[in-house]
Design goal:
This protein has about 90 residues and is mainly alpha-helical. It is built from 2 helices and no strands. Helix 1 runs antiparallel to helix 2. The protein is rod-shaped, with a radius of gyration of 26 Å.
């Protein structure tokens, strides 16, 4: 009979804390840019509707939920652009 012996193997698991610089780069900067995109789309819609009311094209000045949803398109566009931009540099 053969004597088979096995040596135990040791597994090491390492973890690292996400650095604040990475959080700022990959989370805060894209979100702040996306909020700016939302605001710019909303301001554009607001002044377009205000101008059409002042000039007399529209009889009433109203902002609805669809205007907020259109502004959300700006949020999504800018957020996706910034996220792709940051991952492109890696």
């Amino acid at each position: 009979m053969e004597n088979l012996t096995t040596k135990p193997t040791q597994t090491t698991i390492t973890t690292e804390v996400i650095a604040p610089k990475k959080i700022k780069t990959y989370f805060i900067n894209p979100l702040s840019s996306a909020v700016a995109g939302f605001a710019s789309f909303f301001i554009l819609i607001f002044f377009t509707k205000l101008f059409s009311y002042v000039v007399g094209i529209d009889n009433s000045f109203t902002l609805g939920i669809e205007d907020v949803l259109y502004s959300a398109i700006g949020f999504v566009l800018v957020l996706s652009y910034k996220v792709m931009e940051f991952f492109k540099t890696e």
